[in-house]
Amino acid sequence: AKNQGVGLALNNLRSLKGEVEEAVAGFIGKMIEPLNNEAKGLLKKLVIFAGGFDYPAIKAICGIEGLDQLTNSSILDHDLATERYSFHQLALDYIKNRMPILPEEKDKLMPGFAKHYLKVAQDSSDPWPEIEKDEPNIRKAADWVAERIEEGDRDRDRSPGPPSSPPGKAGQPGKPSPETGAPGKPEGKAGTR
């Protein structure tokens, strides 16, 4: 609504290259510069969303500290008719490239992200009309969960058998076994070296 002028200007500038790209980055940087630390922190967190998102998602996943400042600055668009939030693509690109979220910060947010959006999908009584608007985030959540499962499968596939004892524990040469009290033997055939 109030951001149409900024959005239109950014859309017109998006197709230009070189010096204009730097000018656009400077423009977006000037919009972000006066934000307080809470708003800047929230801005970095919000890039985990794929497409638009709503207030309950922000509150559940990222927290709402700094949200009003982001919408008042026009960095984050809030469509009052749909109650959805979104970034202009140029603003999103700027944030991802110049203010990237740290991997450990993203790792802290993603379990809550997946939980929230998989619940949105699960709780929907008439799937597509209700969840269509959140479909990119639901897919991202499902993909994240699938990656965790695949990583677990790969980890299990790499291990040759039952978990081995950590160094200095039972089963190590010269270390007593808790079952027998006898020193552990090196792996291999008994009696051979």
Describe this structure in words.
There is one protein chain. By secondary structure, the protein is mainly alpha-helical. It is built from nine helices and three strands. A three-stranded antiparallel β-sheet has the order 1-3-2. Strand 2 and strand 3 (84-87) form a beta hairpin. Helix 7 packs across helix 9. The longest helix has 24 residues, at 135-158.
Number of strands: 3
Cα-to-Cα separation, first versus last residue:
79 Å
Low-confidence segments, given as residue ranges, are: 164-193
Mind telling me the C-alpha Rg?
25 Å
* Tally of contiguous helical segments: 9
**Helix-strand sequence:** HHHEHHEEHHHH
Ordered list of secondary-structure elements with their pairings:
Layout: H1 4-14, H2 19-32, H3 37-46, E1 53-54, H4 55-61, H5 67-72, E2 76-79, E3 84-87, H6 89-98, H7 103-123, H8 127-131, H9 135-158
Antiparallel strand pairs: 1-3, 2-3
Helix pairs in contact: 7-9
Compose a concise summary of this entry.
It contains 9 helices and 3 strands. The chain is mainly alpha-helical and 193 residues long.
List keywords for this structure.
single chain; 193 residues; mainly alpha; three-stranded antiparallel beta sheet; 9 helices; 3 strands; 56% helix; 5% strand; disordered C terminus
